[in-house]
Write a structure and sequence with these properties.
Blueprint lengths: L1 H8 L6 H10 L8 H13 L12 H11 L9 H4 L8 H9 L4 H38 L3 E3 L12 E4 L4 E9 L5 E6 H9 L3 E8 L5 E7 L1 H7 L12 E6 L5 E2 L3 H4 L8 H4 L7
Parallel strand pairs: 3-5
Antiparallel strand pairs: 1-2, 2-3, 4-7, 5-6, 6-8
Helix pairs in contact: 1-3, 4-7, 6-7
Length: 278
Amino acid sequence: MRAAVRWLERLPASGAARIRALFTTHSDFSDITPTQYDAAYIWIQDIGLLDDLRSSVPVPRRVFDSAVSHSGAPWLADADQLVRSPDELPQDALRAAKALNLSEIEAYAQLGAVWGKVDTAERSRIGTAGELALVEMLKGSTTARVEHVAAWSDGYGYDIAVQSAQHTVHLEAKTTARRGRLTIYISRNEYETMLRDPVWELVAIRLSPDLEPLAVATVPRQWIAVQVPTDSGRSGRWESCRLDVPPDVPVPGVPRAVAAMLADDASVLLSGEAGWPG
């Protein structure tokens, strides 16, 4: 990893031939073997560090970010809960920090940034898959009209509209791929829509690693209302908040109004027979 840092620090802004020539012309690389050079080159190329050679971010921090985000470490997805201080850094992250001459405090700060980027991307991927899965299940389990309104606008404050002759329900979908943890993020717009829209409901979907639906449950709006923060002054306003939902809060299946629209052969996930978390 030190070789990769030194390699990047000496890279010209562009030109593959100049990059290749660097190894044979710069004395700082005299202690690096051709094998180490090639390994460092392939590694930083594979993880995208050559995509922006003009970045103003210090090289050790760029290498640490890329190394952690591409490591496949099982703890990374839950780093927000598992690593709450520098002295809780996992050994692999500490070894990387030491190799890059980063302090534990610097590594901890960088880890927070890495987790944020990874979590945001994963939430987007999982969230979209969950919405689509719920839409398909609803369309296959009811004759009601099912509209995926989030597909054309995220301003409604909900993702899916379900409408029959007797009922209309607006569903906000939140998705997880974890069995033992349901963490949801709710926006101010979603929350205020809940307050003014009597048919708004929040539905959680649990997916398998292959993005197949395993369980569906409803998170009571009364519970949500108690958990969200309160603005304490005119100059402060929350725009998004995170809620860690205890396992006994979600009610298996879709809300009652949607359940009333389900066909006899409806998915057991929607009816709640599969339970939560499935």
